[in-house]
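Protein: Tn3 family transposase
Species: Antrihabitans spumae
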Amino acid sequence: MATRTYSDAELEQLRGFPDSIGPDELIRYFTLTAGDVAFVNSHRTPPNRIGVAVQLCSLPWLGFVPDRVDRVPDAGARRLAERLGIPVAALAEYGGREQTRTDHLREVAEFLGWRSAGDLDFKELDQFLLARAIEHDSPGLLFRLASEHLRSSRVIRPGPVWLTERVAAARQAAQIETYTRLEHLLTPRRRSGLDGLLDVDTELGSTRLHWLSNGATTASPEAIKSEIAKLRFLRDLGVDHLDVSVLPVERRRYLAGIGRRSTAQMLSRRDPERRYPILLTLIAQSGVEVLDEVVQLFDQAVSGRESHARNKLADRLAERAVAAEDRLALLDAMLPVLLDSTVPDAEVGTILRGLGMQRMRAAHSGAPTRLPRDRGHLAVLDDSFSYLRRFVPDVLDAIDFRGTDAAADLITATAQLRGLYVAGARNVPPNAPVSFVPARWRGYLDDAVAAQDATAYRHYWELCVLYGLRDGLRSGDVFVPGSRRYADPTSYLISGDQWQLQRQEYCRLVGKTPDGRDAIEHARHELRDAVAALEEVLAAGDGAVRLDDKGELVIGPLTAETVPDEADALRDDLVAMLPRIPLASLLIEVDRRTGFTDLLVHAGGKQARSPELKRNLIACLIGFATNMGLTAMAHASGISYDVLAWTSEWYLREPTLRAGNAVIVDYHHGLPMSQRFGSGTLSSSDGQRFPMRGKSLTARHLSRYFVDEGISTYTHVSDQHSTYGTKIIVATDREAHYVLDEILGNATDLPITEHAVDTGGVTLVNFALFDLVGLTLSPRIRNLGRIVPYRLGPRRDYLADYPHAGPLLTAIAGDELIVAEWDNMLRLAASFKYGHTTPSLLVGKLSASSRQNRLAAALKEWGAIRRTIFACRYLSDETYRRKIGRQLNKGESMHALRRDLHFAGLGKMTRHHHEQQTEQAWCLTVVTNAIICWMTEYLGLAVDARGAAGQPIDDAVLAHISPAHSEPVHFFGSIPIDVDKELAQLDATGYRPLRNLDT
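Structure follows.
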């Protein structure tokens, strides 16, 4: 059983020491106290003393002692030898007799308070493993958790084969427990429905399982109806009343993942105890996803008609302007006559008629009607009425829209519209609410009433309901029960009872006071200090930031940053020293040092890895990162397409790619050369556009970037040039909604505390939330001088104390609103910080909310204060401005590297669904970070080589050297992947030799 989980080589690794030990572990576990030294010195010979010392340190470190004690990492052996005053070579003479090692281990365990496992320990371990196996099915993870459990109990870990068999038994027990917990849901009717998912449906031409897995690629009426059909099918299976919360979230996600990746044939061959839980969790997850997709398609479809109407309106307004040219020309001829006081009044009429009566009659008859407030937008939308009717009745019938108090009338109107569709009625009920209708459209309804045109009133009222519903979904005033993306915003927050327990802890964590008035007072001092700094700059009046003669703020451009003359030449020299390497070889080398491919684990929890798996994973990563795809990669690498397709399906998923990327980032963060680039506390984010081939729900037309349509990847880059976050977003979405996601979800060792963005990443809500989660937002805002600065307190105080900067603070913040909502603001921020919800689900809603939403309004007021403090600091500190600009430039350089790497197919994305696009984007991020890591490490070796040759380099110059280049890396041509051959090319230190050392 154990050998099916681990290969013989992997079992041997589990029995021995790791290849190396980190500096923190070295200090923690290999530091001997005076008592430890006395215990060690109680043994007679030097080999025994150093051997016992190794066992004494290894047991707390590993939880067991390997048989070959002499194979402890060199750093540990040297540290112990130095402490004991014994030559390191003495360790090679230790433990010739196995009984000696065993006796010493028994003494060490007794000295440290450890013990061998007994029956009670085995029972506790089994219970622990069963509880963990219900959550996680990965054998490797369970093995590590079991080892940590034994170590925390000071129980010596038995051999890996024994422990692996315990893990396997726990996984089997977890499968039985899973079925037991769900058995009450598996009625005969539901079992029949689940089995029906695996049968080919003659109407569909495929299985229902395959049908459910194929999402829409365009927001057309047909696509909406197709998704609604899926939703109704799932509801027939009872999904809307299906509660699988008896299983942990991780278990549900794991089972659903297997169901998505398995074929109908594979599932049908599984035992019922295994098959039904997979299918049950799959349809439960599908029910939520399909519901979200129907609402998303509704939003996109009605928004698409709005954009279409706006374009048509622009054309009509242009035609109207052309038609008005003759009238304007006539007016130009008439005005001079009317304004000339020397022309007698009696002659004015004669002169005007002389301009041409026919021309004047034509101008009069062609006079356009006066435009409504919206310039006729709703009237043009009315042309799309028949298009909207093709899917709106089905959407309203299938979706239960609900709302907050602010949307009560809109929800009532939605219910009445649904009733009109069902009854086939034509006229709007007399009591139908209209309070939700925007002021710019109210005139249409009034005109229809005045004209007693019931048909026109119905059309305009219906359009107002639909677009009010769309806007309500975006702001959170309208929500959908059972949805994840469009749920009631309050459901995302920490519960009130939990918040009462966590408030003080959270405030200590982020350095905030739980009292709103104290927060206002602290902000008041911060603001006055920031304004005082700006006052000094403006009083000087001779810098890039100054006041003009009218008292207007002038912000001059930053002068070009002074870069040492030798920086460019140095970069070329260093790059010339680096070895030339194919991309596949680079990934193999980086994997040897980081082990990132070990984090790309099978979705089904399988642990055993074939010798070819590493090769196949690297081929898949290259295929997606370069945009070649698996077919072209199969030809380039000589690996079968079927093998690559199976590998990518089961191993390349967002969670595994994130984990693999994190270990690369962490390794890069620890490199000495990385510290010369930055400390890892500052990061930035920006969107990068990629054109799209074919249709996708995430693709949009954006003429500035795409000929047809495209998508955006939103990436987070550290000041060390590593990318720690990647997200696929709609190209027309506001980037500001996604800024916090990857920072709060950062699983790397990067200690991010400050974040830079361009104008697209800035909103008042973001300024507030960054502060409330204990982070600093440092944007570069276009037209910063045009923002409205806020103050706290009377204007006269600022005018008196700051005569130059004070007049700029024209608005006053609503401090009473902030005080009233302060606790809710902290609770919202804590919900983000503790991972209860993803910020992007709520940031956009809060930014779009009306003033009726007091929490959103308070956040905007707090954000206005934080933005003003930032603006004063930004304008008064040139060094701060340069730091932000430098970091944003690092993000741009990473865009260029990704663009170079993503070269195939003209860089056009070909994967149509969001999940697939996300996986490809993460493949690109992993490979990009591998290049950055390799470049950084070899640049460091080149710098060290120059220093050893008597040519040291100043760190101030090295700070201007970027690893975001790929000159030494070959992307093109055939891509043979031979892991063993590539590793054999490394020298004894594990690196390739540098080039041009003599020069």
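Remarks: DSSP finds 44 helices and 15 strands in the chain.
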